[in-house]
Amino acid sequence: SKFALALAFAAITASGAASAQTVDNWRNPFGDVWMNGTNELCWRDAFWTPATGIPGCDGVPVAQAPAAKPTPMATKVVFNADTFFDFDKSTLKPEGRQLLQQVAQQAQGINLETIIAVGHTDSIGTEQYNQGLSERRAASVKAYLVSLGIDPNRIYTEGKG
């Protein structure tokens, strides 16, 4: 019984000496480094060197976690390209093509989510006819933007009558 107790004490002492060789700061029974009352300085033993300093003590800086990269913010960008059509027509005029070319060039430099092409008409004609004409005009704008390289799945059309 006395021999077992002495052997256990020797094993505990040997393990304490082994840890003292790797980190030369005094530790409590839970493995925490003993610090002064203001938690600014660590207690060291006689074998301490700067090489055995530990983070948070002895002037060794605590490793900082890398800063999280900010998530990109989505920004709504609106390009207005009012394109006029001849009366009762859905064919783009040359001036309208020019405006849409500018929109397509501007869209190349951004992460494009959607384009909404909205067609309108005047008050002449029936509501049903004007709705169809406005939808054809929006489809004409979409077709031209697709011909300029814009992904057709990114272009939505609406007719406002």
TrEMBL record:
Top-rank lineage group of the source organism: Bacteria
InterPro entries per the UniProt record, alphabetical: Bact_OuterMem_StrucFunc, OMP_bac, OmpA-like, OMPA-like_CS, OmpA-like_sf
Domain OmpA-like: 72-161
One Pfam family in the UniProt entry: OmpA
Subcellular location: Cell outer membrane
GO CC annotations on file: cell outer membrane
Signal peptide: 1-20
Record keywords, A-Z: Cell outer membrane, Membrane, Signal
Stated name of the protein: Putative outer membrane protein A
Gene name linked to the record: ompA
